[in-house]
Design brief:
Length: 688
């Protein structure tokens, strides 16, 4: 555990709930990166043939002239738009010939009596409105048979709500107070019940029908399937952890049920037309003050995930709601009773999972699919699926020095027959990226890769609840914060964003994570051996090293330029044409400051995976991150998400009603997370 403490300095510092938002402090140059590339240039087996030549070209250029290698933007047939410049203003910019429309804002009503948004909405009203901080999302055509085929004018929209900004959520109550991005109000050490309910109901997932109108704009329409799933919604625990001792709680003494889903970051879309929502930074919602000999005494399934040990250490203090209701008390994971069936010591073990939701059945109970592992689940993406072959899904654990995983089902995919239960049987693997460009998938299963009773792993449920520890023992490669993955529909190659890791030291640099103190991040990709998604080996490469013109490279050896410099890649998605969409999440405390200043506001870019060309497609308003992207089946309408506009508002600015963003309504309005609908004036395919 020494190693763990060294790697996780946040462990004793309370919830690390805004990963990556620290002000960059490491000014190291890229010597280490270029040294690593040089070392790799002599080996064989690059994923893409052109890379070897490109690296040779890179090495032939002196540091001072690297910027001169700026890439042409005239090449790709896949990218047909003129790039937009970096922006620092409070609006959305898209290329000439495109138009945008805000839709599905936080607070917009979708169900019940359709309560209108205003600054004093109650917790119950929030439960019938779209939540805050949009993240992963998908447009399901209304026919309800295929997630990518069907109507391009009528669909069920499903969107995750990652977390909240309480000062904007409680805008009326907190008006005039000096509140920062995470502040909440306590009264005599307790939280107001309705504030807590509103916060829980602003989390989770929203499902709502949207239709294209005669005007060309889109609108939310009432539908019996419109639904909010929140931090309180009853759920089943599925898979190997169901019924295990790890998830026994007062609420579910037999370990089969859980309440709610939280910190829903990215998502997944199954081939059988359901939605997966992923629980990312859930640990910060809990407090475990159990002590022994005046020292914190956390079980490993709390400690390895960063559950707080201080009484008010949880992010929003929900366990301190004044009325002491059971659905709030459960966020206190302290051992309080004689047995785990009488308290909530195991409540944190019911989070960290992938949750399956059937958006077309409003009465369905979401299911936590535990065989996909327990960690800070960013998202999940399926490999290209073939009938008669196993299902393969990839997932990243977004924390510094965490891992990338792959699940391979035991059973094969049968269209029309397969359902979510296929995710309950199979093998979870963790990735090792070797410096020579090869890689291995290490099985996290009883008796394999050191996961034995002698090493403290009782059975599969124990391994899954402690997925991170299992990855440690198996020898996985510690990555620079894996965020979204995407699979090229044409080639099956898998891409993952590695958003940044300012704590990686020179001594910790490896070929897959090539920069110490990485502020800018990079994108890795791999190809499974024999092009078999279920293979246990692969070859990997770096698609792009993000940064400014002096510190960036695409795999072709070109530096990024004013048309495409970016940092902190996060959202990642392939459209049907294999256009790769890249979204950025520079933390709000780093935006437009220091070394991140040249990148401006967070943005979305499009890339051609074959040529390496990248162009900036969209820039967002102030303080937000761009997260979530999909299109209608005809690719002529794109939806993206803008999360936490105005998060750069200072405490004083908030007190004065001067928000750093007033998106989308302008004036001095409270900023609201939301979707942006993007269309072309000529009705063409987005990006082409
Ligand atoms: Fe929720 Fe890792 O972004
Ligand atoms: Ca993210
Ligand atoms: Ca973020
Ligand atoms: Ca992020």
């Amino acid at each position: 555990m020494r190693d763990y403490e060294n790697d996780y300095p946040d462990f004793t510092q309370g919830p690390d709930w805004e990963h990556g938002d620290e002000i960059p402090s490491n000014k190291s140059n890229n010597r280490t990166f270029f040294d690593v590339i040089e070392a790799r240039a002599s080996r064989r087996g690059f994923l893409v043939g052109g890379l070897a030549a490109a690296v040779t070209g890179m090495l032939g250029v002196g540091v001072s002239t690297r910027g001169a290698l700026a890439q042409s933007t005239a090449g790709s047939a896949l990218l047909g738009f003129a790039p937009v410049p970096v922006s620092e203003d409070d609006s959305v910019h898209v290329p000439a010939g495109y138009r945008t429309q805000p839709l599905g804002l936080w607070g917009d009503p979708i169900s019940g009596d359709m309560p209108a948004y205003h600054g004093a909405n109650t917790g119950e009203e929030q439960g019938h409105q779209i939540g805050q901080h949009h993240d992963g999302m998908h447009y399901f055509p209304i026919e309800g048979t295929d997630p990518y085929e069907g109507s391009s004018e009528d669909g069920l929209y499903v969107v995750n709500h990652e977390y909240i900004e309480p000062r904007f959520l409680h805008a009326d109550k907190y008006a005039g107070m000096e509140m920062d991005v995470r502040s909440v109000v306590y009264h005599d050490g307790q939280r107001d019940d309705d504030e807590v309910l509103k916060e829980i109901n602003a989390h989770g997932v929203a499902i709502f029908r949207i239709q294209k109108q005669d005007s060309g704009d889109w609108a939310i329409v009432e539908d019996p399937r419109n639904r909010r799933i929140t931090g309180n919604t009853p759920m089943e625990i599925g898979g190997p952890v169901r019924n295990s001792k790890h998830v026994v709680t007062k609420y579910s003494p037999d370990g089969t049920l859980a309440r709610g889903t939280l910190n829903n970051c990215a998502h997944g879309v199954t081939p059988w037309n359901t939605y997966l929502t992923c629980e990312e930074n859930w640990a910060g919602y809990f407090s475990n003050t159990t002590m022994e000999d005046q020292k914190p005494d956390l079980p490993r399934e709390h400690a390895r995930y960063g559950v707080s040990t201080s009484p008010q250490g949880s992010r929003y203090g929900w366990h301190l709601a004044a009325d002491g209701a059971d659905e709030y008390v459960r966020f206190d994971a302290t051992t309080r009773a004689d047995s785990p069936a009488e308290d909530y010591r195991n409540e944190p073990n019911t989070f960290g999972w992938v949750v399956e939701i059937d958006p077309f059945d409003p009465n369905s109970t979401p299911i936590k699919r535990t065989h996909l592992g327990r960690f800070a689940h960013e998202g999940v993406v399926f490999g290209n699926t073939e009938p008669g072959k196993p299902i393969v899904a990839y997932a990243g654990d977004d924390a510094r020095f965490e891992y990338i995983y792959k699940f391979v089902s035991r059973d094969v995919y049968e269209p029309g027959v397969t359902d979510g239960s296929i995710l309950d049987h199979g093998t979870l693997y963790v990735a090792r990226f070797n410096d020579d460009g090869s890689g291995e998938w290490l099985a996290l299963a009883p008796g394999r890769n050191g996961l034995t009773r002698d090493n403290g792993f009782e059975d599969l449920a124990d391994i899954l609840v402690n997925t991170r520890l299992a990855g440690d023992v198996a020898g996985a490669t510690k990555m620079d914060r894996p965020e979204w993955g995407a699979v090229d529909p044409a080639t099956g190659e898998v891409y993952f964003t590695l958003t940044n890791n300012t704590r990686r030291t020179e001594a910790q640099v490896d070929a897959a994570n090539p920069r110490a103190g990485s502020q800018f991040g990079h994108i890795i990709r791999w190809r499974e051996n024999r092009d078999d998604p279920a293979a246990t080996g692969f070859n990997w490469d770096l698609f792009v090293i993000a940064g400014d013109v002096d510190s960036s490279r695409t795999f072709t050896g070109h530096a990024l330029n004013e048309d495409n410099i970016f940092a902190c890649p996060d959202g990642l998605w392939f459209d049907k044409d294999s256009r790769l969409w890249i979204q950025t999440d520079i933390g709000e405390s780093a935006q437009n400051r220091g070394d991140l200043e040249p990148m401006g506001n967070n943005a979305m870019l499009a890339a051609d995976p074959r040529t390496g060309e990248i162009r900036r497609f969209l820039t967002g308003p102030t303080g937000q991150e761009v997260t979530g992207v999909c299109t209608t089946p005809d690719q002529r309408t794109m939806f993206i998400g803008l999360q936490h506009p105005g998060a750069t508002t200072t405490s004083e600015g908030f007190a004065n009603g001067e928000f750093s963003s007033n998106w989308p309504h302008g004036g001095n309005s409270v900023p609201r997370s939301g979707l942006v609908v993007i269309t072309r004036e000529d009705g063409g395919i987005i990006g082409a």
